[in-house]
Amino acid sequence: MKLTPAVLDMDLSYVEKRLTRFIKQYVESTETSGIVLGLSGGIDSNTIAALSALAIGGERVLGLILPEKETYNQKDIEDAKLVAEKFGIKTQICDITPALEGFYSSIPVFDQKDRLCKGNIKARSRMIYLYYYANRFNKIVCGSSDKSESMMGYFTKWGDVAADISPIMDLYKTQVRKLAEHLGIPKELATKPATPALWPNQSAENELGIKYEVLDLILFGLEHFMKPQEIAEELNLETARVEKVRSRWLAAEHKRRMPLTAKLEYRTVGADFRLPRSTY
Amino acid sequence: MKEKIKLSLIQMSTQRENKKANLKKMEMLTAKAKTQGADLAIFPELSLTGYVIRDQLYELSETIPGPSTQKIEELAKRTGLHIIFGMPELSEKTKATLYNTSVLVGPAGFIGKYRKMYLPTHSVFEEKRYFRVGYDATTFETPVGKIGLCICYDLFFPEVTRLTRLKGAQLIVAISASPAVRKNYFEVITAARALENTVFLAYVNLAGVQEGLQFWGGSRLISPTGEIIAKAKYDEEDFVICEVNYNDLRGTEAFIPTLRDLRPELFEKLKKEAECL
User: What residues does each domain of chain B span?
Assistant: First the structure.
């Protein structure tokens, strides 16, 4: 298989149609009042906001802007508001700093210097806010995880990935960027660097150590059962580079599954209880 | 037997696990088919229960004939139509084994059934986990033609439609629950199966979304020369009336004599090679 950027090309109008229909049907089937989503100003959440509004109407979508003092970025908030305004979405700002400080001060072993553990508190706290609004106003939480980050495990377990539906989880980051532009999100926002905002100046591409344009092609090759050596040859990379991505992808499977249990009985949750969702 | 019949390709979405609602919808759509002059109403694969129902198949399956089949029989009697639909079948004999089955009923009652022979168990499909495979192709002689039945993934295996055609089918009805990522394959193989057997082929697919799977619709009637006579919308529910003229079969076989030119001895060779892949 040739691994050129063209393999990631899509009929964007069709993708928009499929995803908006998926969102609309899920909301209708759950008989909820609409959608709540975290609006960070980043590409993924902007895209999800646009899709949600196109699916069920902006007035039924609530974008929660959840800043905190360490990673506070006025530009991100302005970007989030700009997209919300364009698609007619209501927004609400909740400064989560007091909640975070409550966690920091009440955990006896809390370590300020361990920025990953600390950052994960931020992602999981945002999840709590989203689910509070969802419960309080009978909405579903619409997640904005993409396929690149999901495959790489580049997310906080039970944190930013927690949602009722994740409409763009089968789209690589570079595909999300194209979809964002197709939906009318300004190019400047569609191409701005991704950050999970767990600590100041955090950059997804720096942390992953690879550009999404390359990562997505590696992941596409792995998805299609190509061997690391074949992928490396196609992309003119060291095989070790591809192996590293593959190892990370496989190692993160625990983050994408229900918790593992020991099989003791007849039918087991997460193993062989294979039930349909009560809705779509 | 009629020389010309009208089909209604009923590309519906289903309510999963809700047989009552699906039967009601089938009743309403069959009545619509009658008002539009149809002789045969065709519903998609597992139209009685929905497709992605996983372990609920054990609870929702029924014997054939059984309560739901009886309801469809009553509907056929009332409307004078022949009806084909899909449902999970519970074996009458073992009361434990399940089949993915296509059922044919007519105004005079139950006519016959076909148990899916090729059960997809890959990618998002898990049919072999639940169903036992069927063992034979079937063709039924009815007032609306010699009708052969097959289901969805069976179309990937030319031997199923070939056997059905060799048993005398003039119209092969393939009911389906095919998600959108498979659309391009079906667009090709539905035409190929009709052409290589010089037979009419009606393909009726599910529409709507179940568990994130978009069923792509695109139901169609294909002529014995592989042309699309009628086609339903993609993705959405649709209802198409179209006509089969059995007189076209003879002329087609003269022009593309695939049945005359069959080489039975190759089937022995195929069998031998297939046993040691």
Answer: 4-274
